[in-house]
C-alpha cells in the first residue's frame, strides 16, 4: 500500500515537472486562404527539427516536407515575438502570417502552425508534438512545405514555431 502511494506521488511529481518545462499549442486552417541516422544533432536546431519531423512522417508512409525560407522567416519572426514578449505564447497573428505567405508564394490550400517553448532539444520538441493530438495531426497533415523558426527568450527559454502549408503545384494549360 505504501509503495502504491509512493508511485502515485512520484508519477504526479514527474507530470508536474514535465508540464513546467515545456508548453505547446497548435492551430490549423483548411481551404482557400488569401537520412540514415536515428539521432541527429547537427548544431542547426531548425534543420534538426526538420529531420525529426520528416523521420516521423516517413514512419507513417508520408512524403517529406520541404523546408521553405519564406515560411521559415515567418516562423522565426513569430518565435522572436513570443520570446521577447511582443506577443503572447500562442497563435496571435497566424492568419496574417498565412496572408503574407500567400502574397509571396501564391495560393495556399491549407495551413497549420505548431508552437512550443521550453529548454528542449530538437528531438524533444518534435517528440512532444508527436505525443499531442493536435500537433501530431498538423505534422501528419496534407502539407508539402514547412517553415521552422526558433528564438531564445529570458532564461534561455527557446520558443519554437512550425508553419505548414499545402502549396498546390502551378498548373499551366498545355493545349
UniProtKB/TrEMBL annotation:
Residues 52-164 form the SCP domain. The keyword Signal applies. Keywords: Signal. CDD domains: CAP_bacterial (cd05379). Residues 1-24 form the signal peptide. InterPro entries: CAP_dom, CAP_sf. SUPFAM superfamilies: PR-1-like. Coiled coil: none annotated. PANTHER family: SCP DOMAIN-CONTAINING PROTEIN (PTHR31157:SF1). This is Cysteine-rich secretory protein family protein.
Amino acid at each position: 500500500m505504501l509503495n502504491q502511494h509512493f508511485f502515485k506521488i512520484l508519477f504526479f511529481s514527474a507530470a508536474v515537472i514535465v508540464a513546467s518545462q515545456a508548453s505547446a499549442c497548435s492551430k490549423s486552417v483548411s481551404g482557400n486562404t488569401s537520412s540514415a541516422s536515428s539521432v541527429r544533432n547537427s548544431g542547426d536546431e531548425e534543420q534538426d527539427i526538420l529531420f525529426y519531423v520528416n523521420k516521423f512522417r516517413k514512419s507513417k508512409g508520408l512524403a517529406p516536407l520541404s523546408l521553405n525560407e519564406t515560411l521559415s522567416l515567418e516562423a522565426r519572426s513569430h518565435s522572436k515575438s513570443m520570446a521577447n514578449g511582443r506577443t503572447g505564447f500562442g497563435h496571435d497573428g497566424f492568419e496574417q502570417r498565412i496572408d503574407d505567405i500567400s502574397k509571396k508564394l501564391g495560393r495556399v490550400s491549407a495551413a497549420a502552425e505548431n508552437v512550443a517553448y521550453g529548454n528542449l532539444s530538437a528531438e524533444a520538441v518534435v517528440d512532444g508534438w508527436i505525443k499531442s493530438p493536435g500537433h501530431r495531426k498538423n505534422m501528419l497533415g496534407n502539407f508539402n512545405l514547412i517553415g521552422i523558426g526558433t528564438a531564445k527568450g529570458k532564461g534561455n527559454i527557446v520558443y519554437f514555431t512550425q508553419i505548414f502549408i499545402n502549396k498546390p503545384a502551378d498548373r499551366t494549360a498545355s493545349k
